């Protein structure tokens, strides 16, 4: 009796420890996966908070399981809720009892988080609502994992859970997390898989070989897969409808611009009619603060305001006022597209703040369904007048617009000085930079090349790379020109908005233009004292270059007063328009079939993996048939399970064979020979028999397959049941003969 | 004579008189060849005594029958020393226990003192009367019967005594066909008339020796031990099986393997014999299901060792 009790205790003890071990492994995996969310949320505090909530929830689960209570999951959810309330809305708690306010506050935070998620692009700041969402999600994930772990066949569910958590940040931000993260988490999953599939005793040494080989192969295949598969972000953005929000509240409009341009579908953003001589660029946001990594809206709004009409006229420059009427179609943002510089906006619904001519921002409404009229200035200086303007740093309050990050690569400044060597004034320098990027430098327009070569974005390093590779899109061109101008001491900034669209009809005697999501654009603005900010177009094949009328040139010049003053009022030339869209579609059509093919091949591979693993296992076992009949018998058990004949470790070989023999069409003779072989091998004194039984096994398998329905056969091949579940029972430790007892 | 042939012949012989009960016949032969004792628990008239007699006749063994009654004395079992006037010395008159097969009918009707006299003989395989030890015949098997329903005025066997029986079987009623056949055949003649022995005492002794030599692999040994150990920790059982039970289980399994023509024991032998070897030794918790069901469940739940087991 003593012995029996001791052995029972040992077994229970090990089971308990195994569950703890699995919990621990999953916890580590989650903590690692959390690091993948750095591309979604900035900062570090959220990480600690999330770990805290998840740990508290996990501890609750563990304690409840240890005590042996039922209803673990609901209680754990309550614990998580309390933890969240304690961290996020501690004021509403009475002691630890949540009140009505607690739930209202948490609800408010959740809806605020929803707004942020809809409106902002990753990475978002670690605002309280966002942290609440991610912390509560991970808490719930812990509970789900805990529930899954109570199931005997939890491994596949856990794998799916880990994979989806791994993929989530990639789908949100388009940043595929590090391959090493994937490898480590996959390895942790294999650890769980191993501890889950071993039943009672450890795996026999013979079974370890193929298990390790299969696991290694699977790991290698899964590591290789991301290398050959298309970029996750490309797949993520091309699937489904484009999200309605285009510009958020300005966390990083530059990056989202690239994503929006690469989108496959085209939507009409807005239509407008204008009294301006040329269709204007419509500006949505102005980015002045260059951090070295990206462009951000500036902080000091007041000094960025445009010069007044009177100040410009005082310089003897011709200024006219014109009206533009804009109708928003499919564009959802809290910032209004406007021609620059505007003086008045009428017809808006809701409350809009005038951001000193930079932007119009609404706090409680968005652009959907808006129709409004904008009065804007048409400033028409001559080239001579422009050349005469100098901006000395002393009279500048524009520190933000001239600031360069400390580690600016030398190539930017060198290129800028080389290009502008012949110029003597700021206007000529700006035009030289524009022409270099647009025409002379040999740059090519491509929305996909930077992504493919890994320099998408707008930081200083990206610009240096762009100047070498000479391929990119408006984000690269505009930020390159702006930074180059700043290296020469010229104040510059970036405007983001819509390039002039194409003419779609005539309304009220004026051309009606349509701007689509393909017209999303970024361009450079240069400051000229007295005139204000003048737009330049460094991007090839979009709009046309900015240059002002030279004195003495014929007034019958084709372009009249201004030679296609593009960002201020240029028409996007038809030919160029065709070029740019043509390039886009041809590149898309090149990548689309490839993506589809690779995705299809990957799916096929994924679907085929079970069959492949099953085939490999069968082959391996047949290969070992010469030395032992055990692999053959295991193969028979597995095949039977594939065909729906259950196998249990409490089966004797004979009992199993009897059950199998009840199936239609089984080759009883071969089965009988195989049974005798395994019984002799396992239980007889000397197991010497002629032949290795492989033929008998083949005969039995063939007869089993022949007697099965077509559906059963397919199921056995594509989804072999034997790949999951339990193995035969092998007791721990060396076996002692019974005769030592009694 | 070859073991399997002889065994088949004996079984066939028994089945001539016991219609439609091959399991009972096999269990009886297994116990006989494993040198155990058999307890048959059933209502009267289902062929308990016939079974024992048929076995004895088939192997040309001596068979003696004791009808247990409350006034039966221990000396009736073991024998008694009687003073012989002619020789002027005590002469031993052997009791009923001196036979190869001893049938103890309604063993629970005798007083505990008489019961224990028989049970001691069963365990020791010898009796001591007046200081002299007499060795019993070999082979020696007691086939005791009990009526489980008529308990009035009986002395139930204590657990310790029940443990000495290798197996307990119940005959059960024959099915319709078997009973019909019995009615027709039995009416005309005494079935024992045509029953001839198919094996000699020497054959049986060599068969018993051969059964002892059957190989039991470590895997099967472990399986048997796991099953008996499981009875000791089972929540539904108040008393589990003793180590003697394990030993007898394996011994019986050896005999069964031999009867089926194998020189090694299969887990299936254990599975087949545990339901007759174990239940009468177990005491269930109050309100639990029957011990037979519990044993069946334990057999179904105990994993069978497979592969990678080397003899140690």
Overall description:
- The complex is a heterodimer of chains A (742) and B (312).
- Chain A has 742 residues and is α+β, with helices and mostly antiparallel strands.
- Chain A folds into three domains: 13-197, no CATH class; 253-590, C8orf32 fold, CATH 3.10.620; 600-723, no CATH class.
- Chain A has 25 helices and 18 strands.
- Chain A has a six-stranded antiparallel sheet. A four-stranded antiparallel sheet of chain A has the order 2-12-15-16. A two-stranded antiparallel sheet of chain A has the order 3-4.
- In chain A, helix 1 runs parallel beside helix 6 (155-173), helix 5 runs antiparallel to helix 6 and helix 6 (155-173) crosses helix 9.
- The longest helix of chain A is centred in the last third of the chain and has 50 residues, at 574-623.
- Chain A is elongated, with a radius of gyration of 35 Å.
- Residues 1-17, 199-207, 226-252, 554-566, 568-592 and 727-742 of chain A have low confidence and may be disordered.
- In chain B, helix 1 crosses helix 2 (22-33).
- Chain B is 45% helix and 15% strand.
- Chain B has a five-stranded parallel sheet with strand order 2-5-8-1-9.
- Chain B has helices spanning 3-17, 22-33, 48-58, 74-78, 112-124, 159-162, 176-188, 201-212, 218-233, 243-259, 267-277, 291-301; strands at residues 38-41, 63-67, 79-84, 89-94, 101-105, 126-129, 132-135, 141-146, 167-169, 237-239, 283-284.
- Mean pLDDT of chain B is 87; it is low at 308-312.
- Chain B is globular and about 70 Å long.
- Chain B is α/β, with parallel strands linked by helices and 312 residues long.
- Chain B is built from twelve helices and eleven strands.
- Chain B has two domains: 3-67 and 99-111 and 135-187 and 197-202, Rossmann fold (3-Layer(aba) Sandwich); 214-301, Magnesium chelatase subunit I, C-Terminal domain (Helicase, Ruva Protein, domain 3, Orthogonal Bundle), CATH 1.10.8.
- The two termini of chain B are 33 Å apart.
């Amino acid at each position: 009796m003593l012995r029996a009790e001791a052995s029972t205790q040992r077994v229970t003890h090990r089971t308990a420890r195994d569950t703890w071990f699995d919990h621990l492994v999953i916890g580590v995996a989650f903590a690692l996966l959390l690091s993948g969310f750095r591309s979604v949320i900035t900062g570090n505090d959220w990480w600690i908070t999330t770990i805290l909530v998840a740990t508290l929830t996990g501890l609750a689960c563990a304690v409840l399981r240890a005590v042996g209570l039922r209803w673990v999951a609901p209680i754990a959810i309550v614990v998580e809720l309390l933890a969240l309330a304690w961290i996020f809305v501690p004021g509403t708690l009475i002691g630890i009892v949540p009140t009505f306010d607690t739930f209202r506050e948490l609800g408010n935070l959740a809806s605020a988080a929803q707004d942020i998620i809809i409106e902002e692009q990753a990475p978002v700041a670690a605002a309280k609502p966002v942290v609440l969402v991610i912390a509560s999600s991970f808490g719930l994930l812990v509970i789900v994992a805990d529930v899954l772990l109570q199931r005997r066949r939890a491994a596949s569910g856990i794998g799916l859970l880990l994979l989806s958590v791994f993929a989530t940040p990639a789908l949100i931000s388009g940043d595929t997390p590090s391959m090493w993260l994937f490898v480590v988490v996959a390895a942790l999953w294999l650890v769980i898989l191993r501890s889950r599939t071993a039943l009672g005793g450890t795996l026999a040494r013979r079974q370890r070989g193929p298990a390790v080989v299969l696991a290694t192969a699977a790991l290698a295949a899964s590591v290789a897969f991301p290398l050959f598969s298309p970029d996750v972000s490309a797949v993520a953005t091309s699937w489904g409808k484009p999200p309605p929000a285009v510009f958020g509240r300005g966390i990083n409009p530059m990056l989202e611009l690239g994503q929006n341009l690469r989108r496959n579908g085209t939507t009409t953003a807005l239509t407008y009619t204008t009294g301006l001589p040329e269709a204007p660029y419509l500006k949505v946001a102005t980015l002045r603060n260059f951090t070295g990594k990206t462009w951000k809206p500036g902080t000091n709004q007041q000094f960025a305001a445009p010069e007044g009409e009177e100040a410009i006229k005082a310089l003897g420059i011709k200024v006219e006022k014109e009206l533009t009427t804009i109708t928003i179609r499919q564009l959802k943002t809290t910032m209004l597209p406007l021609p620059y510089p505007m003086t008045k906006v009428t017809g808006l619904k809701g409350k809009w703040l005038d951001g000193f001519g930079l932007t119009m921002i609404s706090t409680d409404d968005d652009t959907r369904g808006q129709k409004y009229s904008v009065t804007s200035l048409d400033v028409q200086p001559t080239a001579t007048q422009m050349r005469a303007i100098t901006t000395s740093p002393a009279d500048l309050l524009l520190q933000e617009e001239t600031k360069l990050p400390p580690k600016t690569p030398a190539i930017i400044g060198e290129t800028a000085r080389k290009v502008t060597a012949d110029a003597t004034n700021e206007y000529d320098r700006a035009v030289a930079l524009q022409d270099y990027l647009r025409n002379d430098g040999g740059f090519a327009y491509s929305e996909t090349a930077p992504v493919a070569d890994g320099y998408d974005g707008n930081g200083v390093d990206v610009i240096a790379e762009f100047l070498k590779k000479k391929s990119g899109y408006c984000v690269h061109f505009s930020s390159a020109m702006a930074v180059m101008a700043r290296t020469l001491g010229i104040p510059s900034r970036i405007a983001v908005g819509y390039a002039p669209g194409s003419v779609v009809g005539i309304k009220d005697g004026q051309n009606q233009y349509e701007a689509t999501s393909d017209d999303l654009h970024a361009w450079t603005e240069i400051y000229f004292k007295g005139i204000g900010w003048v737009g330049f177009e460094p991007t090839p094949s979009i709009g046309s270059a900015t240059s002002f009328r030279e004195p003495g040139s014929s007034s019958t010049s084709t372009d009249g007063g201004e030679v296609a003053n593009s960002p201020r009022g240029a028409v996007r030339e038809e030919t160029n328009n065709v070029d740019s869209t043509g390039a886009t579609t041809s590149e898309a059509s090149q990548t689309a079939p490839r993506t589809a093919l690779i995705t299809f091949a990957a799916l096929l591979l994924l679907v085929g993996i079970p069959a492949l693993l099953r085939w490999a296992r069968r082959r391996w076992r047949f290969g070992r048939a010469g030395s032992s009949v055990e692999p053959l018998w295991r193969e028979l058990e597995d095949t039977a399970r594939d065909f729906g004949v259950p196998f249990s470790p409490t089966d004797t070989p004979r009992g199993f064979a009897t059950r199998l023999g009840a199936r239609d069409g089984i080759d009883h003779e071969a089965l009988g020979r195989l049974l005798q072989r395994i019984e002799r091998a396992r239980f007889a004194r000397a197991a010497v028999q002629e032949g290795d039984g492989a033929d008998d096994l083949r005969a039995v398998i063939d007869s089993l397959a022949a007697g099965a329905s077509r559906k059963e056969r397919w199921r056995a091949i594509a989804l072999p049941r034997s790949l999951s579940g339990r193995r035969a029972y092998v007791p721990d430790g060396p076996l002692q003969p019974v005769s030592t007892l009694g | 004579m070859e073991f399997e042939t002889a065994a088949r012949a004996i079984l066939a012989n028994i089945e001539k008189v016991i219609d439609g009960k091959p399991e009972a016949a096999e269990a009886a032969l297994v116990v006989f060849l494993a040198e155990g004792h058999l307890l048959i628990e059933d209502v009267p008239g289902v062929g308990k005594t016939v079974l024992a007699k048929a076995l004895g006749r088939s192997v040309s063994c001596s068979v003696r029958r004791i009808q247990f009654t409350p006034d039966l004395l221990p000396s009736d079992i073991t024998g008694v020393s009687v003073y012989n006037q002619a020789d002027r010395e005590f002469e031993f008159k052997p009791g009923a226990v001196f036979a190869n097969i001893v049938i103890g009918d309604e063993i629970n009707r005798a007083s505990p003192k008489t019961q224990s006299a028989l049970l001691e003989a069963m365990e020791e395989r010898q009796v001591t009367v007046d200081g002299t030890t007499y060795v019993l015949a070999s082979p020696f098997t007691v086939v005791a019967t009990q009526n489980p329903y008529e308990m009035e005025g009986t002395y139930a066997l204590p657990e310790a005594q029940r443990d000495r029986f290798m197996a307990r079987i119940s005959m059960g009623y024959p099915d319709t066909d078997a009973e019909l056949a019995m009615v027709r055949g039995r009416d005309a003649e005494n079935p024992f008339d045509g029953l001839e022995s198919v094996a000699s005492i020497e054959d049986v002794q060599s068969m018993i020796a051969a059964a002892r030599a059957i190989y039991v692999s470590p895997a099967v040994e472990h399986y048997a031990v796991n099953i008996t150990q499981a009875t000791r920790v089972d929540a539904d059982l108040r008393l589990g099986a003793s180590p003697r039970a394990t030993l007898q289980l394996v011994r019986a399994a050896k005999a069964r393997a031999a009867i089926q023509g194998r020189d090694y024991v299969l887990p299936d032998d254990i599975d087949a014999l545990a339901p007759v070897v174990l239940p009468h030794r177990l005491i269930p918790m109050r309100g639990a299901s029957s011990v037979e069901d519990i044993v069946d469940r334990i057999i179904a739940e105990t994993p069978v060792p497979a592969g990678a087991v080397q003899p140690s």
